[in-house]
Amino acid sequence: MSSALAIAGVSAVLQFYLGNLYAGLSALFGSTVTVSSKAPDLVQESFSGGGVECQVNLFLHQVTHNTGWRNQDLPSVGPDGRSRLTNPPLALDLHYLMTAYGAEDWQAEALLGFALLMLHENPVLTRQDISNAIAKLPITDPTNPLSTPLGTSGLADQIELLKITPSTLGREEMAWLWTALKADYRPTFPFQVSVVLIEPQIPATLPLPVLTRAITVEPDVTPFPYITAVVPQLSEPAARLGQPVTVQGYRLANASGVVLANAVRGIHQTIAPAAVGNASLRFTPLLLNTPAELPAGIYDLRVEVPSATGTTLTTNSLPFAIAPNIDAWAPGVLASGNTQVTVPCSPFVRPGQQVLLAIGDQMMVADPFAAATNTPSFTYPNLQPTNGLVRARLRVDGIESRVVDRTTTPPTFVGPLVQVV
User: Fold this and answer.
1) Nearest residue to 230 via CA among 299, 330, 142
2) For residue 379, what are the β-bridge partners?
3) I need a surface site. Which of 5, 161, 356, 358 has the fewest CB within 10 A?
């Protein structure tokens, strides 16, 4: 695949072969023919001090995605949005304008004719053509700082060859284009070069191939185990460490483990289930009061069930949240203004997690911490007085501590009460 220098490499290769074409035609045109790769307004400015020279200019006026190669490869990242899976190529079509400038009658037409014949006879740039042109750039154009680096573009090694095809621009499109360029129109041939494949060189994961495939057929509408719901204790939206969680589903008998995974935090933990039945099971994420315990946040939960053939089947995954908890904390009255508050919590919060404390409706992010802690501090630069007691809530990675008691009818608010004076 090519590097980011491939676009410049295409222009350089075309300019090189056009230069070779006109090198032997100086006697025919009565002067040296210049081949450039600049914007037309810059070419026109170069003529302001004297007469128009014999010149052919290549101008890359548009770059578009190639529809044939777009989305051909697998997604570049995994479901977690972070794990690099592949480096899909950026497939581009390059749209050029080739313009001829002449000092005398018929010169521009003749210049354009020779160039068009060359493109017609060479509609595909072979790997040898590209390698030969790029290797000679430091000799033919030694003053250009890109002449040598273009040798590392990889343009000749990409899987697709470069194909040159004419483009069709209507009169209105051509008029708009030259008006935007702020240059006088000259005989011009639009064409397209396809396809340039630019592949980023970013480290990616490469899993091993599957050794064996076990295919079984069972006379059942639901032949494989799967889960339908994850229900924390008291039907809370998020579970708390040390409290049982019920997993509902089908064909869960003999389940051997509940797998919790959080790719962002690099967590993959298997917990032994209890009270296993065909339609449900329970497990308890342990409260360890150490940094090794599961942190608050969102997990992918799935269940492992051994099969009759000796293999382990894995169910579908469902989202599962672990909520933070404000432990025994009775601040009572806090002073307004610049105030620092320390909150005991479980589980431990880890560096990199987003930790916030809300006192009533006043929220503040935690002070920086370099190691896992269960006593994060929060510095409010201007804590406002409250009208009586308000609830305090802790939010970690978007999951809030328990603030509603759903066992009562109607539900009631719970949690530590704070007053700011």
Assistant:
1) 299
2) 340
3) 161
Domain borders along the chain are 6-198, 226-322, 325-420
Tell me if 226-322 shares its fold with 325-420.
Answer: yes
Q: Is the pLDDT of residue 221 over 60?
A: no
Tokens of 263: 């790719």
Q: 233: helix, coil or strand?
A: helix
Sign of CA dihedral 335, 340, 346, 352: positive
Q: Alpha-carbon distance 394 to 371, whole Å?
A: 19
pLDDT value at residue 257: 95
Q: Are 315 and 291 in contact (CB under 8 A)?
A: no
The verdict on pTM exceeding 0.70 is no
According to CATH, what is the number of the domain 226-322?
A: 2.60.40.10
Chain segment 284-343, per-residue pLDDT in tens: 999 999 999 999 999 999 999 998 778 889 999 999 999 999 998 877 789 999 999 999
Mode of pairing for the β-strands spanning 332-334 and 325-326: unpaired
Distance CA 411, CA 30 (A): 95
DSSP string, 356-421: EEEETTEEEEPPP-SS-BSS-EEEEEEEPP-SS-EEEEEEETTEEPP-EETTSSS-EE-S-EEEE-
